[in-house]
Design brief:
globular, 7 strands, 7-stranded mixed beta sheet
Length: 237
């Protein structure tokens, strides 16, 4: 079985944990980090994902990978790995970043034999480097909060692929194939109307979703099984 990835690309253009509402949440997001992030970043990321999906009536319960299910039943389950350093705390500074960071995949969802799997990833290193030019005048706390916001938007993009089971991208909004720095960091960014309507229908009238029998370290595909992210032309079929 070959596992590959749908990728969300960076696009250059001129210019504590949240409260748990799992009692009514149809979607569970199981997550893991390569390196521990700040509480502020996690709060901002979870709040922003909640805001984005709440527009379609989708509520989210957050669970650390490996945490017990405790008899919980969710309409949908996704598993996310946040790769690299998801923080500006050990950031090398804006002058140390590559001159060109556009066109790089910021997130990906695994696909096996034509089926979209419930496993996604956000590349924090690439995302941090991509938005860094807009962060020069901000404090460390502000930079980490905005990084959390950007992570949420990349994550929401991948959640859409997983829930729809589709590799297709939209022409506008979060489900588009590439995002600019401004879109990832602006106060408001959302799904376009068509994608919001689809998510609202999903939340209101459940459709069969991929299930994960046990969410733990051995449910995540091994690195050696994941190929390099595809280009926009090859995944936007």
């Amino acid at each position: 079985m070959t596992i590959r990835s749908i990728a969300l690309l960076a696009m250059a253009v001129p210019f504590s944990v949240c409260a748990d509402n799992s009692s009514a949440a149809p979607l569970a997001v199981y997550y893991s980090f390569d390196t521990p992030p700040s509480a502020l970043l996690i709060t901002e990321m979870q709040s922003e994902v909640g805001r984005i999906l709440a527009a379609a009536g989708v509520r989210v319960a957050w669970r650390a990978v490996g945490s017990p299910r405790n008899g919980e039943d969710f309409q949908g389950i996704v598993v996310f790995r946040f790769r690299g350093a998801c923080s500006f705390d050990r950031d090398p500074g804006p002058n140390r970043y590559p001159a060109k960071s556009s066109g790089q995949p910021l997130g990906a969802t695994d696909v096996a034999d034509g089926q979209v799997l419930p496993f996604g990833a956000v590349d924090c290193d690439r995302l941090r480097q991509f938005i860094a030019p807009l962060m020069k005048s901000l404090s460390l706390e502000e930079r980490n909060a905005i990084l959390g916001r950007a992570m949420a938007r990349v994550g929401a993009h991948e959640i859409y692929h997983i829930l729809t089971g589709s590799e297709e991208h939209a022409r506008r909004g979060i489900a588009r194939a590439s995002h600019s720095r401004a879109e990832l960091t602006a106060p408001i960014f959302a799904f376009a109307r068509a994608e919001t309507d689809w998510l609202r229908a999903w939340a209101a009238a459940p459709v069969p979703q991929p299930t994960v029998a046990a969410v733990g370290s051995d449910t995540i595909p091994r690195e050696t099984e994941i190929t390099a992210p595809e280009s926009i032309s090859s995944v936007a079929r």
